[in-house]
Structures are given as structure tokens and as C-alpha cells.
Amino acid sequence: MVEKSYQIGILTLSDKGACGEREDESGPLLTELVSGLGNVLRYQIVGDDKNKIIMMLTSWVDDLGLDLILTTGGTGVSPRDVTPQATEAVIDYQIPGMAEAMRAASLKITARAMLSRAIVGVRQQTLIINLPGSPKAAQENFEVLLPVLPHALEKLNGDSTDCAVS
Known about the structure:
With 166 residues, the chain is of the alpha/beta class. It has helices at 15-18, 26-33, 50-62, 83-90, 96-107, 135-145, 149-156; strands at residues 6-13, 38-46, 68-72, 93-94, 120-123, 126-131.
């Protein structure tokens, strides 16, 4: 059970979704999945444009002070997949173990998981997680991280208690 209710943003990256050619299924699904962690204060769909993604992530952290931002889409190897580059441009540091855990779990399902370039990082006190664009893969990857998300968010919010597990 989560003691604090966190402020969350969900950013879907999709050229087709941004222009109305495809319905976003991952964003609404993630909104449901995070309900136990807090409230989704921002949800938006933008095209695969590195500068727009950077502006959005920066604003959601610096202006809104969100605790958690989940991105969905743009983590593959196609030329328009720029979510990891945009995320890397705004974060202070990465949390590679979380991204590695997602890929490791996904590899048990599909060899294509090796193509994921998703990263997880922190800007100020905000955790930013890149998830795949597919609703099924986004859910699978999110669920891998869910057991550690409350602890990570507590620590980023200044919890100084000992991390040792009894």
C-alpha cells in the first residue's frame, strides 16, 4: 500500500496518435495501472519530435513538480523513435537497473525486447520511465517495476529511513 499519493504524468509519443490517425490505448491503460500510486495530473499525446518531448518533460518536472512521468512509445530503433534521446537530454542521472529489469522480463516473452532502448532516469525529484508503445508491452514492463516504484518515489521525495530489508 502506498502511503503518499503521487502526482503523475503520462506522455504518449506517437505521430499517428498526435494527428488522430490512431487511438491511444497505452496512455489510458497506464492511467488505470497507476491509480494505486496517485493521481494522473497530466496526460498528453505528442508526435515523435525530440524537441517537443524535451519541452514537455522539462515543463512537467520544472513547472508542475510531478513525482512520476511515464512515457509510452518511441523506444525502438526506427528513425522516428527518439524518446530515449529526449529523456536522456533532460535527466540528471539514469537508473539502469530498472530499464535492465524491464528488458530482462520482456526477453522471456520476445526476442524483440533486445531492440528496446527505453531508459529510466531522474530529473530533480521526478522519476521518468520510458515504456513501449504497445499496450501489452507497456503493461508488462510497468508491472515489472511496480514492486519497487513506491520505494523509489519515497526516496526521491526525501525519505531518509534505512533501505535495509528485514
